[in-house]
Amino acid sequence: MEEKEAAILLVDDEERIRKLLKMYLERENYVIDEAGDGETALQKALDKDYDLILLDLMLPGMDGEEVCEKLREYKATPVIMLTAKGEEANRVQGFEVGTDDYIVKPFSPREVVLRVKALLRRSSKTKFLETETTATNVIVFPHLMIDHDAHRVKVDQHEVNLTPKEYELLYYLAQNPDKVFSREQLLKDVWNYEFFGDLRTVDTHVKRLREKLNKVSEKAAEMIITVWGVGYKIEVDSAT
Amino acid sequence: MEEKEAAILLVDDEERIRKLLKMYLERENYVIDEAGDGETALQKALDKDYDLILLDLMLPGMDGEEVCEKLREYKATPVIMLTAKGEEANRVQGFEVGTDDYIVKPFSPREVVLRVKALLRRSSKTKFLETETTATNVIVFPHLMIDHDAHRVKVDQHEVNLTPKEYELLYYLAQNPDKVFSREQLLKDVWNYEFFGDLRTVDTHVKRLREKLNKVSEKAAEMIITVWGVGYKIEVDSAT
DNA sequence: GTATTTTTTAAAGAAATTGTTTAAAATAAG
DNA sequence: CTTATTTTAAACAATTTCTTTAAAAAATAC
Q1: In strand D, which positions have an atom below 7 A from any protein CB?
Q2: How confident is the model at residue A92 (pLDDT cuts 50, 70, 90)?
Q3: Looking at the domain assignment, is residue B2 inside a domain?
Q4: Which of A72, B50, B92, B184 has the fewest beta carbons under 10 Å from its own?
């Protein structure tokens, strides 16, 4: 159904991070190449036309910034920079070095996938006048609307203020309606990759989320279903 | 139909668990090697290219975590970690040490088989660009539909609420229609390996399952057949 | 038809899971 | 630095599910 198969170059010196991202990106049908240092990365990036490069800023030898600058002498391959928290993320972005986007570590795998998709969508639009079908950033259910661009949730026209985790949880569930996720899976996908906390943390967030939705509409709150012994899901009640 | 024959290394210090899992995995046509301690496991894993390693966390000498870390210096063999309930399963997962998945003990053999299949499917996707999405998790019979993703059972369009065991029992039987299972076998496969309870327990669950199905459709309930002196099966009544 | 074996049914106590509350820890904002 | 918000964790309550038991019903064998 999708015409993905975009080729992505993944550059990070930590193998565990490469493996993590590779897994999540391959799940989306992207083809992944890897590099563990700047020199290799640059060489590969020049050698092959990737659709996108995920580039860690901090690298042994030539750092990400330098890789990007040198690459830019020859190619305009879209680049997303991965930066650790302190690493003056802002300077890295934009035209200083030619980065298209950046993500601060530690990230949640889900976030990376979304940003990759978004950037690929943007850059492919230039080449092909495609129908932008999959590109909708608004999820609409009965009683519930999530506008991801605006990071806004509306229940029956009333805006609901959610905390970041509440929002991400809702958004994640809403992206796969009717699919049950275990607490483990939710922690893995929605939380960042460094979090190994209590499973019941998910319950607490679900509780608050339901509470906030319920203030506006009972029906909206009831969309978040507990599947006993398994986990949670969002269910679109066809009869409403 | 399948091109299995994947090679799996099974690491656990308890022989009964190795034997149990070996039996179930060989039934799926996998080729199984075994190891009872960390040193042997690491040696074998480095010596041969396994398609997957099932690795107990708690091992005499070098524990599973260490085995995985050392292995990762050389290979990216997919690893599923087996952890006892208290053994901070979360930390072990993911990329702290490079585990691909984990299963909490005590598990049901069926669960292990499913997770092994899933991981092998994922990792083989790298080689062959198949479209994961085609794998529909819905079982459809006359009067009965099981959507495994949504963990939902419908009888004649009406949703039926099942408890976890009821659901698992039905799902298990439905995966092998027309095949009779003894109570012993059902307890072994659907329940976890530590459960040595009364055979009548199965009867009780069957009873309640039939009851719930019957509330919607007599015909659906009658699909669950008692084979006198042997056990139970699901039968797809061709005439309906 | 009666005896024997097996299955079904029903009910109650035990076990497990989830919901809720509260407080401490972490993070962001002023 | 202080304050406010958000996140996490722990404890307890409420709920749901599981298992066992025993009697009733059904199927089979003689």
Answers
A1: 5-11, 16-22, 27-28
A2: low
A3: no
A4: B184
Is the separation of the CB atoms in B80 and B100 below 8 Å? yes
Write the residue in A15, A20, A199 that is nearest to B72 by C-beta.
A15
Q: How far apart are CA A92 and CA B123, in angstroms?
A: 34
Q: Give the pTM.
A: 0.82
Q: Residue A59 is inside which H or E element, if any?
A: none
Q: Is the peptide bond before B106 cis (omega within 30 degrees of 0)?
A: yes
Out of B80, B100, B125, pick the residue that ends a domain. Answer: B125
C-alpha to C-alpha distance for B63 and B13, rounded to whole angstroms: 10
Phi, psi of B97 (to 5 degrees): -125, -5
Distance from CA of B6 to the nearest CA of A (A): 20
Among A184, A191, A196, residue whose Cα is nearest residue A231? A184
**What digits encode the pLDDT tens for the residues B31-45?**
999 999 999 999 999
A84 and A53 co-located in one domain:
yes
**Residues B15 and B91 grouped into a single domain:** yes
Q: Which residues of A touch B149 (CB under 8 A)?
A: 178-180
